[in-house]
Specification:
The chain is of the alpha/beta class. The protein folds into three domains: 64 residues, Winged helix-like DNA-binding domain superfamily/Winged helix DNA-binding domain (Arc Repressor Mutant, subunit A), CATH 1.10.10; 129 residues, Rossmann fold (3-Layer(aba) Sandwich); 117 residues, Rossmann fold. 36% of the residues lie in helices and 19% in strands. Strands 4-3-5-6-7-13 form a six-stranded parallel sheet, with helices on both faces. It has a six-stranded mixed sheet with strand order 9-8-10-11-12-14, covered by helices on one side. Strand 3, helix 4 and strand 4 form a beta-alpha-beta unit. The longest helix is centred in the N-terminal third of the chain and has 15 residues. It starts with 12 loop residues before the first helix and ends in a 5-residue tail after the last strand.
Length: 341
């Protein structure tokens, strides 16, 4: 067995041993039943302390990668049958859409993985705490890197995510700017997605009507999404208006794009206001909501949405784990047209 120790890496030496032995056991370069060098031999060969090797071997035993045989040494376990991959999922907030994504992810992995879910709540301190306590315990780390867009916070997130070995890291829903390496990712491209998605409805009411966008100023990616909407509106000569609450001056021909959760008070208030004006949704006034879920088929006779494919996102991330091939994939994004548009 050949281990490469690099004292310049951010990963501690014992973690480098853990990662390389585990990778070898899983890809077959270390065979089931193969004996590992003794702790004394490892320490002498690589010029490290016996305690460092002992710690690494202890972690590997705890993860089920190797087994200790009394008086004989440490042996690679057979991971070909019955071994379950340990996965830590770090969501930002557990919303309806994350539930849809997770259900698809877990269903696709089936019994081949043991999944733990934690929420970092878009707080870098919580992310750091989780990494401090769980960094050497899982085979894969699936992270939704949604954090405030301030420059210093983003730099910190890159530094924190860089602590996770790239062969164990899968980002979901967002491709973290500034993070380098051959990690996996299934992501949205918020600015281009919203523009391309709106173009999918260009043959509808957009042709002759104005676009009014209801959003919250506190939205993480509101500014980025706004750029895509402005590009779409400018390219098609549409009157464009952004607002944070339902307006009073609703007139026939208005198309509303709701960027917040479609099952919130904003949608209810907008529907009531349209009704008070004696207007009919889908005939006089048109609605498009951001993000899809199964309930949209029933809301308002069928709510048109523009959304990434959350079930697909979950399946792609799961496939990366099952095949152990990490790639970067732009997740499908589309408009689903129903009664309201």
């Amino acid at each position: 067995m050949n281990i490469k120790i690099d004292s310049n890496l951010k990963n501690s030496i014992y973690k480098q041993i853990v990662d390389q032995v585990e990778h070898g056991a899983r890809d077959g370069s270390l065979k089931a039943g193969e004996i590992l060098p003794s702790m004394n031999v490892m320490a002498a060969k690589y010029g490290i302390s016996r305690e460092t090797v002992k710690k690494a071997y202890g972690v590997l035993v705890g993860k089920g990668i190797i087994e200790a045989r009394h008086g004989k040494g440490f042996y690679v376990k057979d991971l070909s049958s019955g071994a379950r991959t340990e996965v830590l999922v770090l969501f930002d907030k557990f919303s309806l859409y994350k539930q849809i994504l997770y259900n698809s992810f877990a269903e696709h992995l089936g019994s081949k993985a043991e999944i733990t879910i934690l929420n970092h709540d878009q707080n870098p301190d919580i992310l750091e705490y989780f990494l401090d306590n769980h960094l050497d315990r899982y085979d894969y780390y699936v992270v939704a890197p949604h954090f405030p867009m301030e420059t210093e916070i983003q730099k910190r997130i890159v530094k924190l995510l860089s602590r996770i070995p790239v062969k164990k890291l899968i980002l979901i829903d967002h491709l973290q700017p500034g993070l380098r390496g051959n990690f996996g990712a299934v992501y949205q491209d918020f600015e281009n997605d919203i523009c391309d998605g709106l173009y999918q409805g260009i043959d509808g009411p957009f042709k002759t009507r104005r676009l009014r966008v209801i959003t919250l100023p506190s939205s993480l990616y509101g500014g980025i999404i706004r750029k895509g909407i402005e590009r779409f509106a400018g390219g098609n000569g549409l009157d464009l208006e952004f607002m944070s609450e339902v307006p009073d001056d609703i007139v026939p021909g208005d198309t509303f794009l709701i960027l917040n959760s479609q099952l919130n008070t904003g949608l209810v208030a907008l529907s009531r206001k349209i009704d008070e004006k004696g207007l009919v949704i889908g005939k006089d006034v048109f609605l498009v909501s951001y993000n899809e879920d199964p309930m949209n088929e029933l809301i308002l006779g069928g709510l048109t949405t523009i959304s990434t494919d959350f079930p697909m996102m979950g399946r792609i991330a799961a496939d990366m784990i099952l095949t152990r091939r990490l790639t970067k994939v732009h997740n499908p994004f589309r408009m689903t047209r129903r009664h309201t548009f």
